[in-house]
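This week, look over our next protein:
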Amino acid sequence: MARPVQYNTNVKPIEMPEGIQGEGFFATSMSNFVGLGRKNSLWPLPFATSCCGIEFMATMGANYDLARFGSERMGFTPRQCDVLLVAGTISKKMGPILRQVYLQMAEPRWVMAIGACACSGGIFDSYSVLQGIDQVIPVDVYVSGCPPRPEAIIDGLMKIQDLVQNESLRRRNGPQYKALLAEYGIQ
């Protein structure tokens, strides 16, 4: 009798960082080791305001399961999260609040703009809608779509993971990063 449940036999293990390997040991740089740990333990903070938020909820459901990528714990307090997921229309009145949430997050922090409204204002070309969240906070990854499919959101998170894994431990203290924050008036 055949088993009713089929198991995935094509499981790919986590890629090992560059290093020296021998019998019973593995040596690598601290930056590679920390990058691997950060990549697989992101804590997202959803900032969902409209229809893109519904698609993001579907991404967290069983069919797409964002937990496979180490992002199972959704945090709703900025001080415990390291990835800000902005999904939906952001009005100009919400801009300072979004910026305050961003500033309350601990370093290192990353931002993903989900959907046309968060990326560029979408179809709402009006006086009250912010034409892209990159006017108030720096954005690392843009996910296009109106609303974007859950697969696109997962692809965006995987791009964030690549950024996290390849980021140097010293980047956040570098002059380029400080200049970027200075452009947004962030100290």
